[in-house]
Amino acid sequence: xxxxxxxxxxxxxxxxxxxxxxxxxxxxxxxxxxxxxxxxxxxxxxxxxxxxxxxxxxxxxxxxxxxxxxxxxxxxxxxxxxxxxxxxxxxxxxxxxxxxxxxxxxxxxxxxxxxxxxxxxxxxxxxxxxxxxxxxxxxxx
Length: 141
Known about the structure:
- By secondary structure, the chain is mainly beta.
- It has a single domain, classed as Jelly Rolls.
- The protein has one helix at 77-82; strands at residues 9-21, 38-42, 50-60, 66-72, 96-98, 104-111, 117-123, 129-140.
- The strands form two sheets. It has a four-stranded antiparallel beta sheet, with no helix packed on it.
- The chain is globular.
- The protein starts with 8 loop residues before the first strand and ends with a strand.
């Protein structure tokens, strides 16, 4: 589907897929996401026709109040692989807000930006566990 006839991309739904669970060492060996840190996910770096994703992000086990910000990453996959990435500017817009000890999920439509990488920012001073599930994507005609 489209938002309007002039839309750049069409929505393509698919069965939900778990992309990340920081609680599961088989899925993620980095443990909880530290305060003011971010996780970068190369979701469409090799598929330039994909312009965004529909994701459910869940924060659980937060040790402080805060919010999650989701934004495209300005670095390329080659930057990360070569260790030449720059620390991106942290977004200030909230995807979801939480209070210490509470689990909070929220749906987010995230742009892939120019490099097909999406960042998930822990905008608190405490650690969080992060779960990310994908429900669909936006693809150019």
